Amino acid sequence: MGTTLQGRRIAFLATDGVEEIELTEPRAAVEEAGATADLISLSSGTIQAFEHLDKGGTHGVDRVVADADVADYDALVLPGGVANPDFLRTDTDVRRFVRGFFDAGKPVAAICHAPWTLIDAGVVEGRTLTSWPTLRTDLTNAGATWVDEECFVDRGLVTSRKPDDLPAFCRTIVKEFAGARS
Asked: Per its UniProt entry, which superkingdom is the organism in (predicted)?
């Protein structure tokens, strides 16, 4: 992937219950492309990742979302997992942070169940995106158009369905993030 993201700083927003591979593979992809990746979460310390329903590894938090500023980042990645976005979507600071990327016209990527967070941030109406199939009704009720594709891009919003789609998701986020203005 080269160094197409050299000098870029990417926020990864996640908490306990994140699907580990949906955090680690995109993070590795942007770092391999030259970016710095920060893990933003609800509280300091570590978060507990999962491999489906089994505990995975723990990951150190770089910054608490209440103290995070959109201006410090070039793009945002929202990994999935079932519990992770359900915890995140209820937090006022998370919703503010996510909306800030859309308000600033910065690219955002979300995979699997992560669009739940986008729904509660109020940023899916009028957009086309994909997700884990069970979110289809939630997304359409929030005013989005849902498509069943491995990866879909709508005006800087990159979405993907599931871990099997990670190769396409990772390639696409690097490409989209490289084309974004800092």
From this structure: Bacteria
Catalytic annotation, pick one of 59, 112, 151, 170 = 112
pTM score:
0.97
CB contact burial 86-110 (16+ within 10 A = b; e otherwise)? ebbbebeebbebbbbbbeeebbbbb
Report residue 1's pLDDT band, with 50, 70 and 90 as the boundaries: very low
Which one is catalytic: 59, 113, 151, 170?
113
| 9-179: CATH topology | Rossmann fold (3.40.50)
- In Å, how far are 23, 33, 72, 75 from 37, measured between CA atoms? 11, 11, 11, 10
pLDDT given for residue 180 in this prediction: 76
Cα-based distances in Å from 149 to 47, 120, 131, 136, 169: 30, 23, 9, 12, 11
113 is catalytic: yes
Q: Residue 144's Cα: distance from chain center in Å?
A: 17
User: What number is the average pLDDT over the span 51-59?
Assistant: 96
Q: Where are the domains of the chain?
A: 9-179
